[in-house]
Amino acid sequence: MDASRGDYKKVQDHVLHSYHLKEYRNRWYLIGYHHELKSIRTYGLDRIVEVKEEPLMDFTDTGFDPKEFFQSTIGINRPNETPRHIVLRFTANQAKYILTQPIHESQEVDEETPEFITVSLDVTPTFELNALILGWGAEVEVLDAGGGEGTGEGDFECGEEFVF
After folding, report:
1. I want to staple 16 with a disulfide (CB 3.0 to 4.6 A). Which of 32, 56, 64, 94 is the partner?
2. How many domains does the chain have?
3. pLDDT tens for residues 31-67?
4. In which domain, by residue range, is 145 found?
5. Whole-angstrom Cα distance, residue 25 to residue 76?
6. Helix, strand, coil: what percent of the chain each, to 5?
7. Are 56 and 75 part of one and the same domain?
8. Same domain, 126 and 160
């Protein structure tokens, strides 16, 4: 398979054992086992330039289970991190949407008042989660980012500006 990165200028050759197709935000992705990197990788279908069959190579079955793989993830990427217990407080204005369209299957309502709703999620920090939270702007406050000690680069910080 030949695929390009975000700039679409440089095309690289990858040997991928295809496992799953996944749609996220109106874009389709191919998830599979990368032969050389020996890990699960994700590629946007719109970035795949050419697909070639490797008839002399045996298919590598890692027992990939998409439901398990994406269980604690929002979005298309899954970092090699353990999920964090993240607590968010939403304004009353946003509460009805959060209740009727949960952010993630792990979402639990911790507190509900006429002024706000507090929910917790057990999710792996991803770019997509960060973008989702930032999109709510002043309607959300991160009460607990589940960072703990030693979480390393890209920690999620509580407050007005935060990133994973």
Report:
1. 32
2. 2
3. 999 989 999 999 999 988 888 888 888 888 999 999 9
4. 71-164
5. 10
6. 15, 35, 50
7. no
8. yes
